Structures are given as C-alpha cells and as structure tokens.
Amino acid sequence: MSQADLTALAAELEQYLGDPHDGGSRMSFHRVLDLDENQEYPFGLVSQLRRWGAHEYSLPGEHGGRAGNVETGFNLMRLVARRDATTATAMVITNLSFMPLWIAGTEEQKSAAVAAMKRGGGLSWGLSEREHGSDLVANEMTAVKVEGGWELTGEKWLIGNATVADTMVVYARTGKRNGPAAYSIFLVDKWTLAAETVEELPVEKLHGLRALDLSGLRLERAFVPDGALLGAEGQGLEIALKATQVARSVIGSLPMSAVDTGLRLTLDFTEGRILFGTAVSDVPYSRRQLTEVFADLMIADAMSLGAVRCLQAAPEQVSVWSSAVKYLVPTLLERTMAQLNTVLGARFFLRDHPHYGPYQKMLRDLLVANIADGNTVVNLRNLGQQLGGLLTTALDASPEVRAAAAERAGVLFSMDRELPRYEPWRQELFSRGADDALLAAPDGIRRLRELAEAADGTERERLERAAEVAEELLDRTAALADRAAALKEELGRAYAQSAELFELSKEYCLLHAVSACVLTFVHSAGVSEAPLPSGALLLLMLERLRRHIHPVEQITDPSVVDEVMAVLRRLHREDRLFSHWQFPLAKRAGDLAAARR
Fold it and tell me: What is the pTM of this model?
C-alpha cells in the first residue's frame, strides 16, 4: 500500500471512530474508561472495528483478507490503541493467533480461518503455560496420536482471548522425547470438543488492560481430527518462534500509542495553563521534558518503521530486528512516560477527571508490551546468542555486502517504497550475522552529510552535528566487539548466560536505534510533509540515545529545543499523529475547557 493510500485509510478509520473526547463518538474515552473500570470485555468496540474491517488488513489478501503490507495493520492498530489499548490488544491477539496458520497452514485451513474471522470469529494463541512461561521446550501439554486424529491433554494459561474466542491455536508436545522437534501446533475449535474434555479457566484481574480476557484453557483427552494439525508433526517450535517474531515486531504499537495520547493530553494542559504569566509549555524545564518525550517517541517510531518493514523486506534478519525493537521500545517509553508524569503533575493520578482520566489508563496499559510475547530477558538473550556474528559482520563486511545492505535500507526505512509480498514462512530464526541497519549506517551518515551540504543556516548546522553524533555512537561498535570477545574468553561456557552479555546486548540495541534514526531521516526526508524532516528533532533523538551512555551530558542547546517544540506544537495543533507518518486524526469536537480544570 502506498504512503498516500495508507494515509487516506488511516484518515478514514479516524473519521469513523471520531474524537475520543466526544462522549457520543464510536470509541470515546468515556466508554473506554467505563469498560476498564468495570472490567468488562469490549465486545461492542471490537464488533465496530470488525464491521469496518480493521482486522482484515492483517489477513492475507489471497485468502479473503486485505493485507498487502504488515505496516498497514500495524498503523491502523496504533489509531485504535491511542483510544484504548485493551481493544487494540484484543484485535491484535486474534490477528497474531492467525500467524501460525499463515506460516504453515494449508490453503484450505487459511481460507476457512479467514472466512470465520470475517464473520466475527476470534482466535487465541495457546502458547504459554503456568509452570514454564517462555521456556517453550519445557511445555507439558501433550497431543497423543489416536485413530483419525489427536487427543490433547494439559493447560494453557495467561492466554489472551482464551475465553471469548471460539478457536485456539495450541502448541503441544507430540514427541516422546522432549526437545526442539517434539512439538506440534493444532487448530482447536472449542465447540467441536466433548463437553467433559474442555474447561475455560477464570479470567485474571489485571493491573492494566483491565477489560481484557486474559485467561486459559484446560484440556483432558480432547479429540481433534488429523486436519487440525498445522504444518508437519514436530515443526511446532519453528512455527511458534516465527509467529513470535511477528508479535515482537508489532507490539510496540501499544506503548507508542499510549505515549502519543499521554503527550497529547499533557500538551492540552501545558499549552493552556498559565503560571506566573507564562504558559507551562514555555517554561524552559517543562519545554525540554515535552520535547524529550517527543524525541523518544520518534526514536520508537523509526525503529518500528524498519522492524515492521523488515518482515517483508529482509525476513532472514527478523530475529535481530524484532528482538531489538521489542526490548528497546517498551523500556524506552516506560521511562519517557514517567517524564510526562512530572509535567502533568497531580492530574495524571486522577481516574475520573473528565479530560485526564485516560492518562492513568495509558500509564498502566503500556506496561504489557514489556512482558507479552517474550520479555526483556528473552529478547536480550536472543540478541546475545547472535552478538558475536553481528559485530564481526558490522566491522568486517565487504563493500559489496554494505552496498547491498544500503540498497535494502532504502526499502526498510522509506515510507513510500513498495514492499515485496509478505511470505512469513521465509523468516529465519537466526540472522547469520546480518543486520542491515548497522551495515547501512555508514551510507546513511554519508547521505545525511549530503543533505547538510544542501541545507542552509541552522538546519545545515543541525544536520552536520547529527552526523557527528551518529558517527561517534556507531564508532562504539569496535569497542563493543572487543569487550564481547574478552568476556567470552574470560567466562568460557558461562558467557552465554552472563549478566554482562545482557548489558552488551542492550548497547547493541542502542547502536541499532541510532542507525534506524539516521536511515529513517535520509530515506524518508523526500516524502515527509512539513514540519518534518527536522534536523533539530534528529539531533535531539540522537542525544536521547547518547544519554543512555552519557546520562548527564547534553549536546543540544535551548535553540534546538525551541525548534523541536515548534514541530511538536504544529502536529498537536493540526491534530496529526506524533509520528513520521503524521496521519491526520479526528478533529476535536469541542473546546478544551475541561483540560484547564
């Protein structure tokens, strides 16, 4: 889908859902908060979105859906999640539960599932278990071969949509010996099971996403036919890991939307609140806090742009990109939301405030992204296992390898470049040392310097300084490789599980993020709409990443902050998403009187 088409589609969904501050809109904050307060699953909101067809943009077109690019569904869910992360999560769970079918299902299985989902049917993804969590090769649910099918026994727990969905995709052990080839995946229609063989577990009470169905399923010799098997017997772990890669790439839409709404609500306050004769937005400390939050959000946006497009443009590298974005985006945005708390003050704590009530819900809801579909430990371990190869390639790659990476980066980080057909079965579990973000970063810095030469005045200065800072940070790659090699030599077999390796993986994620910011700027600059691109914003984004390493050093001055504030104010005033995409949002239906109380 072209940039223009996606922007038009986003505007259509925004118009359909309406202004969330308008109590009469289809998806108002008032209704969302009422459901959350009463822990009521958002059946009505989900149904409205299904009628519009939002879920169809995450289902394959050749089987009756409308999906062409993964980023279409990703961005539509951002617009839903900026109103309610619970409803967005319920929708995303169904779509992600379809991924094992998309990866390994037969044509008949895919078409039947898509048809059921278009009629309003839901799916859940029965992967985790109470005693084993993320340890997929320790799962205990079994599938025993019997005449005509399989009998499933065991329990799946902390499963989204487990009660409300008619069908669960179930990961179960089929091998007699435990190990990577011992697991398979089945499509379980709960309505075809004998009553005494299936039991839904109680819905859990949650800190955030209070209205979500997070429950489980217990099976006791539940029979499913041979046609319920997805892919080949013993292929389950591979399918599950590939499906999880997709989830890790797209789940960042939830914290990004939470911070977008949080920042928007805070600006409603700071733009209209006068203290000692000055708007709060113009108080230097508050202004820096607001712009730093905006910069963090745009870092997450740039990383997600590349990670989501990587699913189609470089599927062999998804193991790296999905883990990097899944680690850094939630942890970054949890921290940045705390900065907004400081600016908004006591209002962020008020659940019933007519304007700021949604803020505290966003604050709670964004936390789920850090634990769902592989937590911080899982993703850093995945990167740690590949770190040596990634660093070696980043440092020693031939000119031909770098040139090919730079060419792919033009697709990965440009909002208007056409993506190849999505074929999730092409994803690989290890990248073999390739990360196009780092490999293309030198070309990105070269392009950035060319843009600086063509710019005038302060914009030229900002871009030149941004290139210097990016190069300074990326020059840490060699030192990071040396530290990793020394640690491996020192610890031997203990290296793979060491706490120090996790810290090295965190730093690698920062280098990946630096590359993503530069590459997004240079490859999307020509198609961006004013007030983007902005050299001042890029410089502040790089400063924010640099402060993970040098926490008390600033490289921007008040003039940079003022320029970034001008960009932020314009997007806020014109009701556009805080993103490189800048989607037009539903116009405000009323005044902001409640925001000043």
Answer: 0.96
